[in-house]
Records
---
Amino acid sequence: MKRYPLQTLLQLRAHRTEAARRGVLETQHVVSTCRATCSRIEGEITDLGVERATHRSRLLDAPPPGVAWPAAMAQREAHIDLLDERIGAARQRLGQAEEALRQAEAALQAARDAFFRAKGREDALEKRRDIWRDDQRNAQVRQEEALTDDLLQARHMARH
């Protein structure tokens, strides 16, 4: 297996972490769009329900002059039925939008998991780099101490 320099791996991990972060942001945008769509459709259903209730309450109002009762009733009932169909269609759209929202939320959770995995790997590499640097510094300090001890011993031997 080919081993890459640590700095190159760190850059690669940082790039992957950034790509995962962007993925999370994009899926958050998709989720918010789906939520807005669901809210809009729920508002539409509410408005249609209010309109239908209003028409039902006026079902027995006197028809306009020149229009027979049976024709006015049939027209009003047909309009109420039309509103019922629109409410049914809006509920179907709401079901589809809620399913899209569930899928988007699942994708968001997967994107978050991928981000945290990538961030964890990047942090582990940085920790490894820091440990390696500390080991190098400690080795250098020990080497300098050994040289200092050797010089002191040599000086001490030269005096005696």
---
Amino acid sequence: MVTSFILILTPKPQSNQGKHPLRPKPPLILPAVGKLFPNFSPILHRSIIAQGIIQKSTKGYYLQANDKDKTLWTLQPKSQNVNLADFQDQKVEVKGNMTPTPNLIEISEVVSFDPKPSPTPTVPAILFSPNTPNSPNLPDSSVLPALYSGLTWELTQSKTILFTSGKRRIEQEGVYLQSSQVTDFPQAFLDYYTNELTNLGFKQSLNSSEPSGTTITFAKDDLFLTFGVKHILRFG
């Protein structure tokens, strides 16, 4: 009979006596990128959404965020499609990307939380006094500038008009002319009559600017002319 022997060799277990048991090393965890660079992004240009009020300084537009720190973000539009002037002093939400420059956001979109008013129509008007009796005719055209041609004049009527000359308040019949509404402030209309009346020897006697409109009165002898605009504000 043949007997076989099998030899198995095993290493001797190492003793941990007097030593701490071996423990796996914990994984290396890096802090979040946002915590490392909370107000800029040197490489990744992280996206950002912030809310606050857009304001303007001598250096440009910035956002005063409504977070607890009232963070100030300088705003830089990514394209000409973003017009920050349209949102000045409004509560907004801006979307964009951080940059390597601290507290600078490249803006791609602005959403306003404030109601947007429709364009403010203005109505240019002219008052002449005196006029010829019983008809809404203009005074002698030789002593007045030609009617401003850059507007469409829709209304001409006789009207009792109150004028101011120095400390005198004068009430008499005159002619009232009113144009159609325009959305852009008609500065050229005001400049035209200011220059023309001055050249004709008229003297300015009153200048009034209020939320409801602007009026300017010129006088020469017994002839008064007031011109200006009325604002019509409406929200859409």
---
Amino acid sequence: MRVACSLIVVMLVACNRDGGGAPDSSSTDAAMLTCLQIADGLRARTQAVSRQCTTIDDCELVGYASSDGVVATCNCAPHFAVSCEGDPVNWQAWSADVRAQELLVQWRTRCLAEGCGVSGTCGCDCGRENVVCGISGVCGATSNNECFSAL
């Protein structure tokens, strides 16, 4: 009887080894993830890549509210950054991050087309911050309030 119970416990643990939940956005094929999982994965990559800089040319803002993934908008649009105005990163580190680029392809081709309702992160009146290379040698951003400059 004890052997049978032990066998059942081992089988249950083996069957539940994958966690039984949603795919992990850090290792699952990006094409298999939902837009919310893609946004979460991209947000995690913005926090993981280097922000070190020597000049402002080393820095880039990513993840800002945009309908096309390129031009920031003041209208409501999906974003994956912590701030809907974008997160500063070292552009070379961001470009070299294979996982970020895999997720970014899916974000641009699938999630932007689906709009705010599906991505789970939508920003309105955001625009885009100004990127800076701070005196501490870290990429940063300053708000430019471009959506409200005409008021």
